[in-house]
Amino acid sequence: MTGPKHSCGVVGIAATYNVVPALQKTLMIIQHRGQESAGITVFNDDGKMDILAGSGLVQVALPSNRLAELKGNSGIGHVRYPTADSKDEKNIQPFKVTTNFGAVAVAHNGEITNYDELEAKYLSAGYSFTTNSGSELVTKILSKHMSQHNDPIKAMKSMMGELEGSYALTIQIDNRIFGIRDPYGLRPLCIGEIEEGHIVVSESAAIDALNGTFIRDVAPGEIIEVMHDHFIPHKGPAHKHKANCMFEWVYFARPDSVIDEREVYDVRKRIGEILARECPADVDIIMPIPDSGRAHAIGFSIASGIPYEEGFMKNRFAERTFILPDQKERELAVSMKMNPIKSTVEGKRMVIVDDSIVRGTTLKKLISMLRKAGAKEVHVRVGSPPVIAPCYYGVDMRSREQFVANGRSNKEVCDIIGADSLGYISIEGLVEAINKPESELCLGCVSGKYPTRIPGETQRFQSKLNEEF
Amino acid sequence: MTGPKHSCGVVGIAATYNVVPALQKTLMIIQHRGQESAGITVFNDDGKMDILAGSGLVQVALPSNRLAELKGNSGIGHVRYPTADSKDEKNIQPFKVTTNFGAVAVAHNGEITNYDELEAKYLSAGYSFTTNSGSELVTKILSKHMSQHNDPIKAMKSMMGELEGSYALTIQIDNRIFGIRDPYGLRPLCIGEIEEGHIVVSESAAIDALNGTFIRDVAPGEIIEVMHDHFIPHKGPAHKHKANCMFEWVYFARPDSVIDEREVYDVRKRIGEILARECPADVDIIMPIPDSGRAHAIGFSIASGIPYEEGFMKNRFAERTFILPDQKERELAVSMKMNPIKSTVEGKRMVIVDDSIVRGTTLKKLISMLRKAGAKEVHVRVGSPPVIAPCYYGVDMRSREQFVANGRSNKEVCDIIGADSLGYISIEGLVEAINKPESELCLGCVSGKYPTRIPGETQRFQSKLNEEF
Amino acid sequence: MTGPKHSCGVVGIAATYNVVPALQKTLMIIQHRGQESAGITVFNDDGKMDILAGSGLVQVALPSNRLAELKGNSGIGHVRYPTADSKDEKNIQPFKVTTNFGAVAVAHNGEITNYDELEAKYLSAGYSFTTNSGSELVTKILSKHMSQHNDPIKAMKSMMGELEGSYALTIQIDNRIFGIRDPYGLRPLCIGEIEEGHIVVSESAAIDALNGTFIRDVAPGEIIEVMHDHFIPHKGPAHKHKANCMFEWVYFARPDSVIDEREVYDVRKRIGEILARECPADVDIIMPIPDSGRAHAIGFSIASGIPYEEGFMKNRFAERTFILPDQKERELAVSMKMNPIKSTVEGKRMVIVDDSIVRGTTLKKLISMLRKAGAKEVHVRVGSPPVIAPCYYGVDMRSREQFVANGRSNKEVCDIIGADSLGYISIEGLVEAINKPESELCLGCVSGKYPTRIPGETQRFQSKLNEEF
Amino acid sequence: MTGPKHSCGVVGIAATYNVVPALQKTLMIIQHRGQESAGITVFNDDGKMDILAGSGLVQVALPSNRLAELKGNSGIGHVRYPTADSKDEKNIQPFKVTTNFGAVAVAHNGEITNYDELEAKYLSAGYSFTTNSGSELVTKILSKHMSQHNDPIKAMKSMMGELEGSYALTIQIDNRIFGIRDPYGLRPLCIGEIEEGHIVVSESAAIDALNGTFIRDVAPGEIIEVMHDHFIPHKGPAHKHKANCMFEWVYFARPDSVIDEREVYDVRKRIGEILARECPADVDIIMPIPDSGRAHAIGFSIASGIPYEEGFMKNRFAERTFILPDQKERELAVSMKMNPIKSTVEGKRMVIVDDSIVRGTTLKKLISMLRKAGAKEVHVRVGSPPVIAPCYYGVDMRSREQFVANGRSNKEVCDIIGADSLGYISIEGLVEAINKPESELCLGCVSGKYPTRIPGETQRFQSKLNEEF
Fold first, then answer.
1. Which residue from A184, B120, C55, D186 has the fewest beta carbons nearer than 10 Å?
2. How many interface pairs between C and D have CB atoms less than 8 angstroms apart?
3. Are residues B140 and A130, on separate chains, in Cβ contact within 8 Å?
4. Given CB atoms, is A301 within the 8 Å cutoff of chain B?
């Protein structure tokens, strides 16, 4: 129904020195947001913009010898998440073009929900597209508005008036670096100060890794220009209701990142505590599904007073389920990457804590492995409410058919996965754990109500974007 | 002064079957026109256009396993010549975009002389560019005119009204294949019939290799649409004077190709015959500089009655001088690729025949090697007049400074290269050998008079393009 | 002082079907034992032995398309650990040769301490070497004894009489598969039954992953031949004192493996419990250094009643410190792979639990990061006694200079790493945790007393190998 | 019936400076002798022997950046010819081992006819083999004799007493460089002086390319040690009849090389002259099959007075037929690499001259192409007598079944290939052209009589090797 999804990671840096090493480091820190490709652009001393990008992890896509050839005091970067239709190498970002107002590069995290409409509009106007990425669309729209306003900020605001959906963007125009967050703040973006420079980046953990200082989140609808010695905020179109994606805290972001003033680890631990309250269980041990369920399980253990144990050995030489592109590869990977630890499991009644259940296939396999290893009872507790609706904002959960919880009772799902009991955190509990008003969160995938217009779906907030900016 | 040069090879094929093998074969046949990169597009059964392109020779750029994944009954292809600023992988062709009127791919041989003007014009209009290739420019201009005319032929004619310089283009619009030749016919392009299909391609030799039948050359200013069962010619803007590049016969094309009704081998042999008449020499043997000088030398031998000998061993594991990107690599390569055959050379007076002299550095080295091997006299005969002016139409000869004959007498050049005598064919002789009126040839690089407007250069023909088409 | 070190992983499988997929799976499961190269041999239906081996992780070294070309009902495999002098590709294992008694392949985990003597001996006898690996030496010695005994078992026993040091070997002679463990049992090796087949492998976790059944450990000095339907044990030279490497439980092996009848996770948890008893601390939380310190920390938390917390975010896109080849790369990697979680750390007094301290450089960096993140007190507890002496049996700890604990008091080391206190488990505590007599363990690196003759070092056991076998 | 065939190229260089660039250059000059793999060894300043070797052409197998890391004043090199069973990468040469008398590397051109016997002998003695190449066998035999004699020259002489068949070897023992030629001189090897150094190499053309001076051929049975300032010849076992392979002059070697005092180009031209005398034809033109038939055709043209023409365009982007590994690839390649030049061919009666006919398949295809292009008569003249018997000395012509001339009359072959007439040079004519006594040539493949013992074949010379050396 829409253009391709991009739950990815973005960064932009301006400093008094060559930013290539900092871009590389940052992309490795936010690598969990996308492992399919990586790329950077920098503005070199000859007044030209150079690009290096490729398939695979940062260390493969951006080999050190090639990086060593790049140099520039400002640049942006991107890591891309694998989605079904994104294998095409031409979709590797940043997307870079030459325009009348300079070289322009764009890195995009999120999903433009009216991509098809906008593509059609610009195609009709005689534009052509070399990719099917939001990044290219952004350059086209930006170019059009630049030719009218001849001012980047004005052009970006006009552009934001056309874009719908989620976007955290870093944009480089010659040597100028901008960060933009959509009017609902669906995807994260924050600002930091680093040594003689500034950074806009998807997650705050990257600022830590650069020994920098976190300044603040980019506000919804805000445009930030970062320079080496300061940054300039510009107010763009914002909605009166924010809609931060709850899944960033539940699963997507690094535990050590602070997203919209809430530390991810802290939220997860609180989720575990609330889960223990909402869905208690009489068991011997609490076990996480590593790695993403650990903080939730620790919270559950502390709140319940039941000992925390690591009952699964995770093979770090296999990728995490959620990140793999298709169902077949997902199943193949399970037995290679998880093995129960017998001494922990044997004869025990246990809660296993996972961050979320989408298809349930991995979980079913894991429970069967636990039983084979001698587990007496296996109770599943889940750190997010049942996922019943698609995400249109950049998380690769598309069709209702794939959600095991869609149209099934708790009991039915519990039987399918083979657990002794199954408990999810409630929406209220999740909201409490995040500690933000429900009206400031995007809960689309668990409520079916979306912050923005999605054809065929329910819209939560009918009010318009703020037009006075 | 201009956009990048493309003396390359192009092809377009439509048939009732998968054309990928035929495209691959064709590109290998016209590989001599460009070894830096290769690419093809095809329109697949799902109604999408697929592309495969990469750096290097066809066998590297288009590996068999990847080709096997492509399928379509129509497609175009391109091989690219290395020029100084063309190393960038993004310039690999065909250039493919999505437009309002379908997927469009363009392969270009030649050089758009008003590239900078047109780029500036379209940038000002809000367009952005991802490459600096003529192919992308063509798509932009075509898109604009398509949005006005909504008819490919009309749009192509309007486009040709904007383009200056040389171009042999193959264009694919979804499953339709077009071939276009510039109003002067500067670069070659011809039509052939193959089994249940038709082809437009730079050189006729490719039609032979496909066991096809040569039909005719594309006329200057003509647009050809090829279908599997017929082809449709459309008259576009043409100049009353053709201007076929004389260098295609002298050096660039394969000897077995027929370009504008003149077989290349035949022209070269006649050049040799006329050279023997214009610049005779009292010698023992006639020797070619292999491989490109062979036909000229055979002609010289036959006309003079002096025996033909192969006095140089050419190492086929080194590239030909002219094709290498920079001066340093050129010099390095000489001693690796040519070695005199002592029995032939020792104690002999000889004519060595070369197709042309540009810098003269290779020739100087070769003559010195001949003398070291015992040659008694070395007389140089050249199959083209002295190159004294740049080519603006796609042959990589750019600055007057590099031409050894520029501003020097025949005697001076002869001394520089260390020959006993030096004789070039005259312009008249060359025209006679090609057997076309001088007014139908581009002799810009040997006369300094160009068929089209070139800032700072003399224009031969002041008349306008034919406007009635 | 010796030949190259090989702390690696080995496997041998015989079954009624193609064992290539099982070999691949096994190598991925024991990948943590070596990531520098991987290889397998199989005996194909044409009566020949095929080999596939390469640099890098299993998925890179043994690409699926290449594996698909291999087929055989018996085979061995190897993953190699990077050591300083092992970069050479020729050292990739298995080492395969043709001999008078068939094709022979050898995979070796461990280190032959008299490698130099044996190499010299065989060189003097007119043998030549293509690598400097123990595997090749093994083939040479085996070949010599085969030409005398013409019986593999007898030849292997004679070979074991020459070899000193540690070795877990898998050997393939045409279609026969053998596993051998050195007379002290220094390196692990166990036997399992899989579907219609048998396996010898470094760690039991691999048997689980193949849905097989663990049978038993290979005894010190034992030679096992595995067939598809049974296995045959042969008694070789053994020492009356075993000397199982304590580091396999402390750090090297997977937590879900059972080594010499002790589950690794269980031992580690007990180490944590004993540490809590031997070196208690008045703190708010117990934190592991992930991933290897988790089980120790959980044990400490349970025994002390102090809550367990995950205070470090580990970036799974960086390798673990210990596994990286040189000091420079080690330091570079620290900041990329660990970041403190502020909410957990800030204002807290904490114990951090690590499995061992070798150089102390990573730990120092981590403590400094914790303090920067607001930690009030940082107490270090270590799951192994101070490492003060080299390992000569295959763990890459070579010179005393590199051990921070060598010649320094506890206080001095504590100051160097910047901790508030530092406590190691005692040797007695470690022995208690492993729950084996001290006389059955190799404690060389913490005691300086070695089970076998090492020039310049103290030998624990003076008795000879059992000669009657 | 024997070990693998090696018609390859070898080189050894000793100088006062780093010989790596000279080795690379030499291998590119003798690249025509083998394109499947390339490798070099050098003895570096640290007293170790380094090796670099890989698959493919020199420029791929020995990439410049890797070569730049190698340095040494002495080294050897090898290019390998693709034979059916040689795809295995382990057979890439030089073969390098560590022995009791130093690091040893061996590069081999030729074929050890008693390979199987010797392999069995050494396997029985307890040796093991990692490859199935003559090079490794040579190291084993050399090692054995070194352990007896402790003198390289004596050991090499003893080794030559064991080896049968053809071999031109370059051997490096630490920093010493040796060249050895078999007792019959079957494969070429010559000595040259270069700047502050000496070289032994397969073909003299390489000495020219290094601006060196040809000294002389290595004599049959001779061992040459080259040093930077001189070379030392040692007399080894020689046969009183030389047996130089006639195919080196006819086809294999470069035309500019001088092999055993006969320049290749010169011999080929004389072959053409004698062919014109032995098998005249009443035609309009003489055409070569390029590239290898050119010199023969020029000779024919001069002797007959009939004009020489180049009637085939050869696509230099395809490999020569003979060099491709299997029949299928051979056929595929024909149409891609040869195209008749119509103006030359149409309506003409012609002789086409080829160096040799083995299978005849390519020739048949070419004649059919000529007829399609309008040739009136096509007469085939061949520069070697009919090939009717296998080569056991390193040319990849193995089974009698593949030879079109085997068991067929001239008329039958002529019909098969579709020629108007077919004429071969006679054995006597070939001997005359080479200008050496028939008793000094190996004519095995055209006479069926071999210089050395070959089980099942006729032996020409019964006399023994000279034993007094």
1. B120
2. 57
3. no
4. no
